[in-house]
Design brief:
The chain is mainly β. Helix content is 8%, strand content 37%. Strands 19-9-8-5-6-7-4-3-20 form a nine-stranded mixed β-sheet, with no helix packed on it. Strands 12, 15, 16, 18 and 21 form a five-stranded antiparallel β-sheet that branches. A three-stranded antiparallel β-sheet has the order 10-11-17, with no helix packed on it. The longest helix has 17 residues.
């Protein structure tokens, strides 16, 4: 039995070329970002439509973006390619029935909020209208996804934590799998304080009375790697201990309680070949357009202009999902968070002045004067990583507020 303790990822390279949102987006608000060299004769390559997503009964999410021009000197646009916000996005079946309509939620992200059910032996496609332009994916049959056997973790000697997924096909047929994940973690401020300056109210508010303390927060992260494996060359259709993520100490994931929700999708042999070929080409050359064994073309076409280049691959599947918790505090791993330094200061005339300079109330001295520390030390929403906030996930197992 082979062990899949490896993770392939499309890494962002550090030189100025075109940036494509080319890796698959399923649960992600932002996908894997990679840079590609401009091939001879292809011009500036600006504005090519990139289509990413999966058709699913309960979680169809599609992202539309465009490539960035080589001549663009704004590095922010390399990190955040232009989202296409004026599209009409629908799911259709082979009989051209409209099964569902996607609504734009932000930028170029579209989500199908209505639930629908796949019909046996029916194929589905993504239909996109952009002004006078009409784009459509190939009609694809939804793949049947086996259950996730388990999601496990392992603490390494360097205090990093590897997370693995295992699955198998009960009929021992060849598996082609793709995974993505969402991670949530609970964190806390370094110090609990009873008072907080509220800039809206313009006064100090006792946190015990607000119901909005800044001691406990919850943060969110998403996979940014193209995670693929298959059993094509194995005697048994079993994928065991495929590493999907590694946590590194020194950040708030180690604070209190960590959770990862893993989504598993079955791919067809064709879609698996597409993503593996794309990944191999990028890993070996850093370019989408370098010589390769087979052409990377995807399954998106412009029906109104067959000569227009479109990038992307859309498939259909019903994901299998599994969730894992790692109780960092209970396992005495919280010290690995490496919290920020919090030097005290009294050099402020009033709480408003302290707040405006990035400090928060820590307590009082013997004379009743406020003591201040950098606000990140008493306000968990200021820790940065994972956009921490006071919204606790519905499935969270404790009663922290």
């Amino acid at each position: 039995m082979l062990s899949f303790k490896q993770t392939y990822s499309i890494q962002k390279m550090n030189y100025k070329y075109i940036v494509f949102y080319i890796a698959l987006l399923i649960y992600l608000p932002a996908g894997c970002i990679s840079t590609f060299e401009n091939p001879e004769g292809t011009g500036d390559m600006a504005g090519i439509l990139v289509v990413e997503g999966v058709i699913a009964e309960e979680s169809t999410k599609i992202n539309l973006s465009r490539t960035v021009a080589l001549s663009d000197d704004n590095p922010l646009r390399y990190e955040n390619p232009q989202g296409v916000s004026n599209a009409s996005v629908r799911i259709i079946d082979e009989e051209n029935n409209i099964i569902a309509v996607a609504e734009r939620v932000a930028g170029g992200s579209y989500i199908v909020n209505e639930r629908f059910s796949f019909v046996p032996d029916m194929k589905y496609a993504l239909d996109i209208r952009l002004g006078d332009n009409h784009y459509q994916s190939a009609f694809v049959a939804p793949a049947s996804t086996p259950a996730i056997d388990e999601v496990t973790w392992e603490l390494n000697d360097d205090n990093s934590i590897d997370i693995f997924v295992s699955t198998h096909d009960p009929n021992n047929e060849t598996l082609y799998c793709l995974w993505d994940f969402m991670e949530n973690w609970e964190l806390k401020a370094r110090y609990r304080t009873l008072d907080r300056y509220d800039p809206t109210a313009g006064k100090v508010i006792p946190q015990s009375l607000t119901g909005d303390n800044r001691y406990y927060c919850w943060a969110t992260g998403y996979s940014n790697s193209l995670l693929l494996a298959s059993t094509e060359k194995l005697r048994e259709s079993v994928i065991r201990d495929y590493r999907i993520h590694t946590l590194q100490p020194g950040n708030s994931r180690y604070s209190l309680l960590y959770s990862i929700t893993v989504n598993q999708y079955s791919l067809s042999k064709e879609s698996s070949a597409y993503f593996n070929n794309l990944l191999k080409n990028i890993e070996e050359s850093g370019s989408l357009f370098a010589p390769q064994p087979s052409e990377i073309s995807g399954n998106i076409r412009c029906l109104s202009d067959p000569n227009e280049t479109v990038i992307g691959y859309v498939f259909a599947a019903k994901p299998a999902t599994s969730r894992l918790f790692i109780p960092m505090a209970e396992l005495n791993l919280s010290h690995l968070e490496n919290p920020p330094s919090c030097p005290e200061s009294q050099q402020f005339d009033n709480p408003a002045s302290a707040y405006n300079r990035g400090y928060g109330i820590y307590g009082t001295d013997n004379l009743g004067r406020y003591l201040y520390v950098p606000r990140r030390c008493v306000d968990c929403t200021q820790s940065g990583l994972g956009n921490p906030n006071k919204t606790k996930p519905d499935y969270w197992p404790n009663d922290h507020q």
